[in-house]
Every structure is written in structure tokens, then in C-alpha cells.
Specification:
The chain is α/β, with parallel strands linked by helices. The protein contains four helices and six strands. Strands 3-2-1-4-5-6 form a six-stranded mixed beta sheet, sandwiched between helices. Helix 1 packs across helix 2.
């Protein structure tokens, strides 16, 4: 008997995350809160069977999770934070966010962001850092012109 495809939604945060697992019919199979750890995340995704559809929002620090999920055999989807209409929900919590990500993916309405390969991510970070340094330098230069230091 073939196992039914499972969907995993992750509301990823810096230290802890909420993981919701659902079947193709939308029935909740499991909801778990974890301290962010690669081994724990890989073990939980393995419970979803072969090649689960996993969705997480593009937020600060998503790289490590996407890499762990891909290495675990998951089909990783990165939700674009501004491209998805979250509506005007009365209830806003981590579990609901993860569940909504799954629903958008299941319905084919998920606005996805591109998952850059690791070697390109490093270059992107260098460009972002350079832009930040340049911005700070320009701000300091402008400040010195307004109020010279003696």
C-alpha cells in the first residue's frame, strides 16, 4: 500500500519553531514545537514519509532549515512573505501560521520565493553586507559634513 503524501508547514523562528503535519485531505496528523536543531528537524520531517511537501516562510535565518529539509528528501517550498494574502485573521499564532502555509500549498495558491543554491547565497550575503557598509559610510560622511568633528 502506497503512503499518502504528507504536507508539513513550519513557522520558523530564531530559537524555536512550530511544525504542523497534515495529510493530503487536510487532516492534522501532528503539531510539534521544537527548539531549532538540525537533527530534531530532520527527524520530524522523516516522520512525514518519503518526499513530503514542506513549506516555510522566507524569514531571517531560513537557509539552514531549507538545507536540512532538502537533505532529508523533502520537497521544500519557500513562501514569499509579502506575496501571500494572510487576510484579516482574528487569531494569529504560530500553529495557525504553519497551518495556513500548508493550506496555501495544498490549494496551489502559495506565492513562492526562489531558493538560491548555497554558493549563491554566500555571494548575496556579501552584496548585502557591502550595501550596508556603504550606507553607513554615506550616513557618517553626511553627518560629518553637517557637524564637523574637531
Amino acid at each position: 500500500m502506497e503512503q499518502q503524501r504528507q504536507y508539513v508547514g513550519i513557522d520558523l523562528h530564531r530559537r524555536r519553531s512550530v511544525i504542523v503535519r497534515r495529510d493530503a485531505d487536510g487532516e492534522v496528523l501532528d503539531t510539534t514545537r521544537i527548539d531549532n536543531d538540525a537533527a530534531t528537524l530532520a527527524a520530524l520531517v522523516a516522520e512525514a514519509g518519503p518526499e513530503p511537501e514542506v513549506v516555510l516562510e522566507a524569514c531571517y535565518g531560513w537557509y539552514w532549515a531549507a538545507d536540512v529539509l532538502a537533505d532529508a528528501g523533502a520537497r521544500v517550498h519557500l513562501a514569499h512573505p509579502l506575496g501571500n494574502n494572510w487576510g484579516h485573521r482574528r487569531v494569529k499564532n504560530d500553529e495557525r501560521d504553519a497551518t495556513d502555509l500548508i493550506d496555501l500549498l495544498r490549494m496551489g495558491r502559495l506565492a513562492e520565493a526562489w531558493i538560491a543554491p548555497p554558493e549563491l547565497r554566500e555571494l548575496r550575503e556579501l552584496v548585502r553586507y557591502r550595501a550596508l557598509c556603504r550606507h553607513r559610510h554615506r550616513a557618517r560622511y553626511a553627518e560629518d559634513r553637517i557637524m564637523p568633528s574637531f
